[in-house]
Amino acid sequence: MAQQITLKLEAAEDSHSALQRHPALAGATTREQHQLVSIYYDTGRMALRRAGILLRLRKHGASWQQTIKRQDDSDGGLTRRPEWQAPYLNHFDFSHVDDAELREWLQRDKIAGRITAIFETNVRRTVWQIDRGPGSRILAKLDRGWIASSGRRETISELELQLLSGSVDSLYALALELAQRQPLPPLLLSKAERGYRLFHDTPRQPVKAGRVPIDAQDAPLAAFRLIALDCLSHLQLNHAGAARSDDAEYVHQMRVATRRLRAAMRMFGPVLPDGFAGQLVPPMRELMRALGQARDLDVLMAEIVAPVADALPDEPRLTDLASAITNRLYDARNAIRHSLRQPAYGQLLLTAASLLQSAPFIEAPGAADETPSLLQFADRRLRRLLKKVLELAAAARAESPPSLHELRIGIKRLRYAIEFFDPMIPGKSGANVIRRLAGLQEELGQLNDLASAGTLLMVCAGRDPHLREAVTLIGGWHGPRHAALLDDIPDKLKRIRGLELPRLA
């Protein structure tokens, strides 16, 4: 058995020529090219996939090689997994697998006797062997081709860095060096995952945040690492949709992912190493600015303009204003696509991942003994966030939109924190508080959207009196709802004053 450590990066199809001219690759020790045909297998019930096992045949010249892989550990594109390889002699043979439990499982009749081809890949691979110094050697593999299953096909365009010797730091150092000129964000979906999606014809859809598997026994820094990696995955799993689709939910989920990561960095600030936030916050702000502009226009169109246009379908001024907003929205989405194609986006993700894969986040045994327990840390931070929310609620006034906006932000940060620590909260008390906070956040968000809509509508209307009349129409139509929301502010503030934290365990 050998353990394979790789870092997969997404490479734009039009970037291959420039990438191959990069000095780090041009100065490689060796360079080879291969045409690789691979066939992936599973049972009809997907038993291998459910068990985290990958079975593949790959053609080498006139012969075939059998490979078995087990997905043991994958973090933000960095994968560590054992693999077993052997020549394929016209039948599957698992006798060389030195993991007895796995070998016996594969040899069972209901597994070995039911294996069938699921999907196929065909790529042109260029391989460079790169020596990064004494004891450090990396294979860079640039793949271009396709993956096919059940009559469906997708292109493959990716760069894989495989560590032959040395530290994981050297993988990220090389990736960041290559990413100075090309957009090379980490690639989370493997060829196998994409193949299975093709086989099942699984539609691409926006991905929401998951539940982070932290434990009360974790050190605070280890818990932050898990949360941050989850936020980065949440961001990157929506990247392709935001870059290629007009579905506004992809942009929204990317924005949520960056906000969650920023909230986690604030909450865990006391235990984060010096300089960590300084390396990530500036590029995160640039990304959040681009995402925010598109999201604000999406909300303006869907929540503010569309209801009025539906109620007054024969009003040409509303139609013209909606067209002006739509043009700005398309420009904002194009700006996001442009940002996501820039090297800076990949550099942000790679920098964050590289920091999280090194000390002090990867702790030696016993290194966490001197730090407070996660339970103690979480309790202190949640109480501090609740205290801040109560202070903001005490200062909030219905006639002061900025004070209500600040309160909404405080509620959102408290909600994110409870979501992060939810695995440490027994029963449904955490979910109940999260729902309550989400409701308050949504109600205050509606008020904020209405309060800020006027300024953005006037920007979209410009100096056109025809369009400015439409803005007046919209303001009048939403007036009763705005007044009702304002009238409900005292009740909201009362509900906030009654907030209690769920018990941690």
Could you describe the 3D structure shown?
The longest helix is centred in the middle third of the chain and has 36 residues, at 276-311. This protein is globular. It folds into two domains: 2-200, Hypothetical Protein Pfu-838710-001, CATH 2.40.320.10; 220-497, CHAD domain. The chain has an eight-stranded antiparallel beta barrel with strand order 1-6-4-3-2-7-8-9. It contains 18 helices and nine strands. The chain is α+β, with helices and mostly antiparallel strands. The mean pLDDT is 92.
Keywords:
alpha+beta, 2 domains, globular, 505 residues, Hypothetical Protein Pfu-838710-001, eight-stranded antiparallel β-barrel, 18 helices, CHAD domain
Briefly characterize the structure.
The protein is of the alpha+beta class and 505 residues long.
Explain the layout of strands and helices.
Blueprint: E1 2-10, H1 16-20, H2 23-26, E2 30-43, H3 47-50, E3 53-60, E4 63-70, E5 73-75, E6 78-87, H4 100-107, H5 109-112, E7 115-133, E8 136-149, E9 152-165, H6 168-178, H7 191-200, H8 220-237, H9 239-244, H10 248-267, H11 276-311, H12 316-340, H13 343-356, H14 374-395, H15 401-421, H16 429-461, H17 465-487, H18 489-497
Antiparallel strand pairs: 1-6, 1-9, 2-3, 2-7, 3-4, 4-6, 5-6, 7-8, 8-9
Helix pairs in contact: 6-13, 8-10, 8-13, 10-11, 10-15, 11-12, 11-13, 11-16, 12-17, 14-15, 15-16, 16-17
